[in-house]
Amino acid sequence: MSENKNQKLVYDFTEGNRDLKDLLGGKGANLAEMTNLGLPVPPGFTITTEACKVYLESGAAPAELRDEVSAHLAALEAKMGKKLGQSDDPLLVSVRSGAKFSMPGMMDTVLNIGLSDASVVGLAAQADNERFAWDSYRRLIQMFGKTVLGVDGELFEEALDAAKEAKKVTVDTDLDAADLKKLVKVFKKIVAKEAGREFPQDAREQLDLAVEAVFNSWNTDRAKLYRRQERIPGDLGTAVNVCSMVFGNLGPDSGTGVAFTRDPASGHQGVYGDYLQNAQGEDVVAGIRNTVPLSDLEQLDKKSYDQLMQIMETLETHYKDLCDIEFTIERGQLWMLQTRVGKRTAGAAFRIATQLVDQGLIDEAEALQRVNGAQLAQLMFPRFDENAKTELLGRGIAASPGAAVGKAVFDSYTAVKWSRSGEKVILIRRETNPDDLDGMIASEGILTSRGGKTSHAAVVARGMGKTCVCGAEELDVDTKRRRMTVGDQVIEEGDVVSIDGSTGKVYLGEVPVVPSPVVEYFEGRMHAGADDADELVQAVHRIMAYADRVRRLRVRANADNAEDALRARRFGAQGIGLCRTEHMFLGERREMVERLILADTEGEREAALAELLPLQKKDFIELFEAMDGLPVTVRLLDPPLHEFLPDITELSVRVALAEARKDHNENDLRLLQAVHKLHEQNPMLGLRGVRLGLVIPGLFAMQVRAIAEAAAVRKDAKGDPRAEIMIPLVGTVQELEIVREEADTIIAEVEAATGTSLKLTIGTMIELPRAALTAAQIAEAAQFFSFGTNDLTQTVWGFSRDDVEASFFTAYLEKGIFGVSPFETIDKDGVGSLVRSAVEAGRATRPDLKLGVCGEHGGDPESVHFFHEVGLDYVSCSPFRIPVARLEAGRAAAESAGSDSR
């Protein structure tokens, strides 16, 4: 604590301001700001977050804290003309938490500190209201007992219910002073029995214990869970606000309420909030009695209502944002107890941002900072009607947002067949693999009982904009019997189910879906300039237009066919950053690739390649036409080998059964021997990418020729093909040099044969740590880098992304080892460090080196900011994440410009 010896630990409300949130917490900083504005704030002081940190680290408050609190308490007593806990006309205070970031309801508060057996009598005389005094005392014992002494809160509630039942009343306001005196005695007995000590009668002891309780509440399970959910750092600590009490429970001319300067649900201006007569603040939150709309206050207390409206206008103008306000009226006197920038829905965020621009309170740059990609994503996906009746079956990982309804099917063939017949289907599998692609495309959504957010199902679903729930372990999927069981519930094929990719919930039956007008806007089916255009769409349009004007990062799409490419272009894609050619070899073409891989002779291999070449060429012609004039990065074949070979177990069983019947199949025997030879324990780290291209002669050459010939065809048709050939899984420059030399030769041959000048560039995917560490050498042979952050994360961490999320990521998140999955948001310290160093080394070798990223992180809001910071030229993501990436790229540029100007 030595370094804090001279640090101020307590600030009067008159000493702080809203810029001191790190030190005073949000509540303390805003109480100080309102005090500075001359608004009616009850006097008080704030104990800083630094004091809390010391307490949490050492288990004891800083030695000098007691003296500082005493000095500020004495000043408060002098200002109020009364002393804490004195028997006649006592000063009472509240003790409230207040972290830098709002954590509503997660930490502790104690009201009415200073009441005792003696001072309650003085309070009753001063207020000329005996019932009020004893009501305040029972509240203190109840809150103090639960919060500070750890007594089960249910015991107090049961005693209160018993008192109401004895009086034959239903609400606590019908208990009179005599009833409350008896209740206080009961509460004190509960404390003595459960806490092993008497309720403290010394006011200063109450205060000190309450302050420590608020410090301790920073690390309660609920607070830690909330911080993990909201990504709030765990080392910030909470401030403690000690505020002189004002009372809303003094009678019908008193009350308490919550107000918003705009509707936090819609963003519309108006009078929004709740009010409760003759109550203290916790009554509104607890729902003990029904509140009335804030607008009713105008009839109940016109003077206070008019003053509150003026204060709300003052605060919104001052904070230039929606404000959330707590207030109390004490016998006709309005007091402000809290204000903060209010939480709001995604739709309200966009509407409010543009409204404030129109009112001249903020500029477009600030409006862009008031919204984020996560909010935009919420607006883009369809959602279930929240008011619908539902039957919950289970819950998995929310892998790809949206709401999907359809008949349960358990294989891709059925999904495609039923879909073609006009049925909406949900494909249900234990886990998906590339062979399920047709079924995934045909389905409204995908549900798996295994896997995580970066499993095959999740990644592909996000790429297609399909709703997906993964890892729903409580669902027992039996694909052979075509059914799924949950406990005693059996869902047969054809039964309707609904899945919510935003929450991970799975429902039986059809839940009504509400469509998204924002997606209709991005797809060009709704025009923001139309008179009848949705107000929300207009707000999104305006903010997106500004983001596109200011962003430096370009945004491309991960797309493997012309249909996805066209959709991506409608969503604002500026090219394709990743075309995965292995996705072109699924379905009917898989057997061709299988023959190529297993070919025994050069003739067999050449025949397989000759069969594939025209198909690949046609694929690329369609792709270049869809993306004419924009760059298209084509990744050469990069499948884990097992995805294109027969299943070794099934093949072994087939051969064994044939041998038992003495019905030998020479082809199956030969196939099994070949599969055994190529079988890998860890296919993701095996014969794939550039290694496959070097081991199978002619494979990459065929693909390069197809790309070059397709580009020549497109150019001959007066198009503007801009193909970029990407070599996957390079770990050393020699691999790239060999492939590039062959590719350059083939491109030259095509140019000579067609009389066309093809400006094709050749680069590589940086997805191995060695590639990142030797980027300076690799850049000598590469014209561009594209960071494959999925595999880079996998290889840096030593994680199998298909397994770890389901096996131990939950425990890592709960223990705080991860704040968020490194497959979801880039690990800046580890993976990000390699990206940064590779960028610097690559550009040192080749200053004009084009740099992008095409992993899942390319569409993650937080990761986009990192990629802007390290100087990449573009990010690439699935088509449905393009608007999110565009928005975040704009926010990153605006934020960077703001930092530079400061």
From TrEMBL:
Entry superkingdom: Bacteria
Keywords: ATP-binding, Kinase, Magnesium, Metal-binding, Nucleotide-binding, Pyruvate, Transferase
Pfam families: PEP-utilizers, PEP-utilizers_C, PPDK_N
GO MF term set: pyruvate, phosphate dikinase activity
UniProt catalytic activity: pyruvate + phosphate + ATP = phosphoenolpyruvate + AMP + diphosphate + H(+)
Span of domain PEP-utilising enzyme C-terminal: 538-889
Cofactor(s) demanded: Mg(2+)
PEP-utilising enzyme mobile domain boundaries: 423-504
Location of the Pyruvate phosphate dikinase AMP/ATP-binding domain: 63-290, 298-347
EC number per UniProt: 2.7.9.1
PANTHER family (alphabetical): PHOSPHOENOLPYRUVATE DIKINASE-RELATED (PTHR22931), PYRUVATE, PHOSPHATE DIKINASE 1, CHLOROPLASTIC (PTHR22931:SF9)
Similarity annotation: Belongs to the PEP-utilizing enzyme family.
Protein name: Pyruvate, phosphate dikinase
High-level lineage: Bacteria, Bacillati, Actinomycetota, Actinomycetes, Kitasatosporales
Gene: ppdK
